[in-house]
TrEMBL record:
Keywords: Cell cycle, Nucleus. The keyword Nucleus applies. This is (Mediterranean fruit fly) hypothetical protein. It is found in: Nucleus. The keyword Nucleus applies. Residues 50-189 form the Timeless N-terminal domain. GO terms for biological process: DNA repair; DNA replication checkpoint signaling; entrainment of circadian clock; replication fork arrest. It holds the Pfam family TIMELESS. GO terms for molecular function: DNA binding. InterPro entries: Timeless, Timeless_N. It comes from the Eukaryota. One of its GO terms (cellular component) is replication fork protection complex.
């Protein structure tokens, strides 16, 4: 392990080159360890994935271990303070994604999640997809193109103007006066009445008069420290090539794998609903992300037909109700269930937004689906009272705002 540490450090410091390899400038040695390792794994997996019917148990175990390895590598938390990477720069997570793309492992993951015969690996593939897009937003990927969008140009111009304004203010700041005023006179504060109807008279220095406060001697209310802190969602603009790669990969998932993946994973989760061995947050997050990407990219109904159904609405609603019940019953893990409830609520919100976008599609089949969902979802009492029930049972000690 000691011999490979310089390679890892070079990957971290030097970054990604144009040909997808990682360069180590140590005595002229070129190290593309991650690329070569991922490529060798991809070659061995291609041979194993050829025919699932004649696959041995050892080969299936090897595929599962490879998927778990990819999941564990992508699950390493980001450290922006240590990386010191700006937007539009390749972070360590972006470099891993690019290495997976160049080696062909992302295509193998796409094949696994798109095939109904590989249902035993769908949960691993779903986790990999969620970790691939964890730092991305569907809006930024939908707007990614070969040329910069107008919003990106305006945002960059505003950031540049703000930086110039701060620099100008720093240079124009007057030096502090060497002599301070020690005059402690008597002042009359206008439009502030005293005990009588006259203006209040203040016998204090000018600094205290300007910051006069009548609440200093009041008994302050005790603040509760049990309120959960707002978690900062790490979102950043990745390198331009990485964003284009993730956008194309997202389109391929919607075209060939999304409906199959949602159907098979939801079937597994419903089968193991009572055991509690699986977390449904990954599927809820994937439904929300890919449906938002599809809605912002033109709203093609056939790509997300598995999600725009009464069964999916009902499943998301049952997940929300289950999480609300577990917050009350399992108080030790209340914050964990609150996080799952937050993910389910975001998915339910995206389902409603996609339902509204479905109304604008000029297609008879889309309008018929909209009318059917409107009658079976929006006019049902339990769906309409869901948001009201969430507001009435909101507890700031468990859930964020």
């Amino acid at each position: 392990m000691t011999a490979h540490r310089p390679c890892v450090q070079a990957i971290y410091n030097d970054g990604l080159t144009n040909d997808g390899t990682f360069v180590l400038l140590d005595n002229g040695l070129i190290a593309n360890t991650m690329f070569v390792t991922a490529y060798s794994i991809a070659v061995s997996c291609r041979r194993t994935l050829n025919d699932w019917a004649i696959r041995s148990e050892e080969q299936s175990l090897m595929i599962e271990r490879v998927l778990v390895l990819i999941r564990n590598v992508l699950q390493v938390p980001a450290n922006p303070e240590a990386e010191c990477r700006a937007d539009n720069d390749a972070s360590l997570h972006d470099q891993v994604i690019w290495a997976l793309h160049q080696s062909g492992l992302m295509d193998l993951v796409l094949f696994v999640v798109s095939s109904s015969d590989e249902h035993q690996f769908h949960l691993h593939g779903l986790e990999i997809l969620c970790l691939l897009y964890r730092e991305q937003t569907a809006e930024s990927l939908a707007d990614a193109s070969l040329q910069r969008s107008l919003a990106e140009k305006q945002r960059d111009e505003q950031e540049l103007l703000a930086a110039r304004r701060r620099e100008r203010q720093r240079h124009q700041t007057k030096p502090p006066v060497a002599r301070h005023s020690r005059f402690g006179g008597t002042y009359v504060i206008r439009n502030m009445k005293s005990v009588s109807d006259r203006d209040i008279i203040c016998h204090q220095p000018l600094e205290r008069v300007m910051s006069i406060d009548f609440d200093r001697e009041k008994n302050q209310q005790k603040r509760s420290f049990r309120h959960i802190k707002e978690e900062v969602q790490l979102t950043r603009r990745s390198a331009f090539s990485v964003r284009l790669c993730l956008r194309e990969f997202c389109i391929e998932i919607l075209r060939s794998a999304y409906n199959t993946l949602v159907r098979e994973v939801r079937r597994v989760l419903e089968r193991n609903a009572g055991t509690g061995s699986h977390d449904d947050s990954y599927l809820l997050w994937a439904i929300r992300f890919f449906m938002e990407f599809n809605r912002l990219s033109g709203m093609q109904l056939e790509l997300v037909s598995e999600s725009l159904s009464v069964q999916c609405f009902h499943w998301v609603l049952t997940r929300m109700q289950h999480d609300m019940d577990m917050i009350v019953s399992d108080k030790k893990q209340a914050r964990v269930w609150a996080k799952r409830l937050h993910v389910a609520l975001q998915t339910f919100r995206e389902l409603l937004l996609s339902l509204l976008a479905l109304q604008k599609v000029k297609d008879d089949r889309a309008l018929a689906l909209f009318d059917m969902l409107l009658n079976n979802v929006c006019y049902v009492l339990e769906y309409r009272e869901t948001i009201l029930h969430l507001l009435m049972n909101y507890n700031e000690a468990h859930s964020t705002k």
